[in-house]
Please model this.
Amino acid sequence: MALPKLASAKYELTLPSTGEKIEFRPFLVKEEKALMLAQQSGKDSDIMRALKDVINACTFHKVKAETLPTFDLEYMFINLRAKSVGEVVDLNITCPDDGTTTVAVKVDLMQIQCVKEIGHDNNIKITDDIGMIMDYPKVDSIKSLSGDDEVEAMFDVVKACIRQIYDSENVYEKTDMEKSELDEFVESMSHEQFEKVQEFFNTMPKVKHPIKVKNPNTGVESEVVLEGMQDFF
Model:
């Protein structure tokens, strides 16, 4: 006789990057175990692989985690964790005024938002006539930043995120560009022009949440901004 099947609740969230509504279920014990084993290994590659596998499974394979912008993946996992383990997490926050005292705080994961800065634009004007349309970095495109050559990795991420280059007469699709052409285009930018590209990455949407902490030793109250998935767990 077959054992009864356990049903999972279903929830819905909105992807910050597109506004698309995504249905998901909490992760199961087997998936939580995979996350714990990956965390235990201490390897970023194992953690990211487990994270992507869990997101894919919990969205009924309608979402491909490897294609998500990094902030979408972080926002989705925070919501997954909230519905699977609990909506409130206990964190120890270091007080900024002395840099040593830690304070225990409770954070409601359901209050965390993905924030887009005013003025952020994926259309970057390099000159009056030449510009680029950018895509947000995907998980698989930024993992190279953990390598030894961080400078080269940074340029690789920039080039991976270029969708189109245009001038006053033509639009050039990334798929039609030779690697050498793209390399030459990026490396021929002036410092000021490349700063415009960096500004796109600096101001792109981020998962963040401000909290107030009061140092019990000094009485000083400070605001601490939690940012990125690693700050919440």
